[in-house]
Amino acid sequence: MAAEPRPRRRSMTDAFNIIRDPGAAAAARGDLMSMLERNREREAQLDAFAASLPKLTERDLAALGQSDGNCPICLTSLLALLSEEEMALAMDSPAHPVEELGVTQLPPPCGHVFCRKDIRGWLYQGNTTCPTCRRPFIAPGSDEDASVSREAALLDDLLSGALARPIRFDEHFPFDVFPGMQGRPRDSAQQPVDDSRGPDEPREAHFDYDDDRSAYSGMYS
User: Where do the segments described as Disordered lie (predicted)?
Assistant: First the structure.
């Protein structure tokens, strides 16, 4: 079965097209702000879940029958992880953040045990299911995800609509924005008018160039 084609990546031309269309720019800005707000809410939910994970002790591991167990992700002994946490807390500057030290257990019905560092990394990578049994430990927000998908599709439509209009760079980048350029368009009053072209036919720009190369004569001696 053939894989679905990936959407085209947006380029600087897309950005210029959005800039030149105030309506599309305002709509895109509103959609982006909405998606960013939803992303912040999602991150706050992940932070709250990560903070709620318990810190297990040797007694907890013994009660769970995990005294000889290992973390399913990094395969480090759970007791070794507890010893590492104890040593780190006794130091003034532990090697890892305190919230990533030790061992934790996912809530029921899963209940699998992991080191806190690895399960937090798994969580903040966007995963909401147990690495071992694939049971979700955070309820999927179907309505929220659908809304974000709709907003992303709308933003893509706006970008695609803007791409249908050709961009004219001379509207945004006049020749005099680069003061170091010696060649500049002549003043319209000094340019001879070519009446052989139609009123709608584009005319060529004429430049005055400095042909004096005496300043560079020493480079070729």
Answer: 179-221
SS3 173: coil
Return the sign of the alpha-carbon dihedral for residues 115, 47, 147, 31.
negative
What are the structural domain ranges in the chain?
A: 55-117
The partner residues of 7 in beta bridges, in order of sequence, read: none
92 CB-near residues (< 8 Å, 6+ apart): none
Residue 102's closest CA among 79, 119, 85, 77?
85
Which two structure tokens, joined as six digits, stand for 45? 């939910």
Q: Provide DSSP, 8-58.
A: PPP-HHHHHHHHH-HHHHHHHHHHHHHHHHHHHHHHHHHHHHHHHSPPP-H
Inter-axis angle of helices 116-124 and 22-52, to 10 degrees?
160
How confident is the model over 133-174, as pLDDT tens digits?
999 988 665 455 555 555 555 555 655 555 455 545 455 444
User: Of 65, 75, 88, which is closest to residue 115 (Cα–Cα)?
Assistant: 75
Element (H, E) at 80: helix 78-90
Global pTM reads 0.49
pLDDT tens-digit series, residues 164-215: 555 454 554 444 544 554 444 445 455 555 555 555 555 555 555 556 666 6
